[in-house]
Design brief:
By secondary structure, the chain is an alpha+beta fold. It is built from two helices and five strands. Strands 1, 2, 3, 4 and 5 form a five-stranded mixed β-sheet that branches.
Length: 100
């Protein structure tokens, strides 16, 4: 695998060995198959990784995009994922979801 242009982290709420945070309860893991499919369909060179709890439960599900360093909040739908991927393609940010 070549080095990805983007690395997308999705909060999976794990603290130690247990999912204790809220992102997983807000279906963050359900976004991953759609996210991976869209990345492939759009031809974006990106990797998706789950993380432990990011301690931002009230803002979850949380998604982080590197190397841009953009933290997105309340990524609760495929429409939110689309907005974030659209922003990657255009070199902008998905302001509606961007964490200030």
């Amino acid at each position: 695998m070549q080095k990805p242009d983007h690395h997308i982290f999705v909060c999976a709420s794990f603290r130690g060995m247990e999912a204790k945070g809220k992102c997983i309860k807000k279906d963050s893991m359900q976004l991953i198959p759609y996210l991976e499919e869209e990345l492939e369909d759009r031809g974006l060179n990106a990797m998706v990784t789950t993380t432990g709890c990011l301690n931002l439960c009230d803002d979850g599900p949380v998604l982080i995009v590197y190397p841009q360093g953009h933290w997105y909040r309340k990524v609760e739908s495929e429409e939110a994922v689309d907005a974030i991927l659209d922003s990657l393609e255009s070199g902008t940010t998905a302001g509606e979801y961007l964490m200030a």
